[in-house]
Amino acid sequence: xxxxxxxxLVRDGVVxxxxxxxxxxxxxxxxxxxxxxxxxxxxxxxxxxLDPTATRxxxxxxxxxxxxxxxxxxxxxKDLMAELGIAPEEVEAARLKRREERGGFDxxxxxxxxxxxxxxxxxxxxxxxxxxxxxIPE
Length: 138
Hints:
- This protein is an all-alpha fold.
- It contains five helices and no strands.
- Helix content is 54%, strand content 0%.
- α2 (32-48) packs antiparallel against α3.
- The longest helix is centred in the middle third of the chain and has 29 residues, at 56-84.
């Protein structure tokens, strides 16, 4: 027997299908916060699986999987807001305020790197998260 760690959110029919095949599956139902986090990871996973050189049918399937993950993430947002007593209107007002202050994502801007002074407060922020922001020696 071989055992593999999956550690991922799966569609509702996957666990029963695995068990029907005689696989021993360790699984659990996620609480709202964990579900919220995992839906974000699922969207990233589905996005990474999209291969623009694949067949049209495969691309359509991958886009459908990503869309399902996005819709699920939206539901996870709603569940978490309900649990925390946050009204959807409050989140929407905050979204609109942020958009007014900082813009949206319409320009599709992508920052590859930033060079800044040692004493810039952002330097400390980036340095605290080396897994997210790798420092490039000059």
